[in-house]
Design brief:
The protein is about 35% helix and about 35% strand. It is α/β, with parallel strands linked by helices. It has a single domain, classed as 2-Layer Sandwich (Transcription Regulator spoIIAA). It has a 5-stranded mixed β-sheet. The longest helix has 16 residues. The N and C termini lie far apart (about 30 Å).
């Protein structure tokens, strides 16, 4: 199981592109790479999930944690370019009604 995480940080925004599988094995690495940004004030984190082939509950937990931490620090999390499969997962968990999620490359839809 492999994950690639590319980050581009500019000012109060970090653009993240994730590729591979986000599961119990790779989720800790994702959290470790992104958590420092969630602790900054007024940060916007845009995460492109276009090339994520699998996401389990551990991965969902990372995004929930990032969402809460960013919100606590007056920031926001935007998840973009979700596949139909990932979008359904966020719908089934109800997270799609809470988080800023878009299947498009735009900066979130909600």
């Amino acid at each position: 199981m492999k994950i690639n995480i590319n980050k581009h940080h500019k000012g109060k925004e970090v653009l993240v592109s994730v590729e591979g599988e986000i599961d119990a094995y790779t989720a800790p690495n994702l959290r470790e790479e992104l958590w420092p940004f969630s602790e900054m004030e007024n940060m916007t984190m845009v995460v492109n999930l276009k090339n994520v082939t699998y996401l389990d509950s551990t991965g969902l937990g990372v995004f929930v944690g990032l969402f809460k931490q960013l919100k606590k620090n007056n920031g926001q999390l935007k998840l973009i370019e979700l596949s139909n499969r990932l979008n359904r997962l966020f719908e089934m968990t109800g997270l799609i009604n809470i988080m800023n999620i878009s299947m498009n490359s735009e900066e979130g839809g909600r």
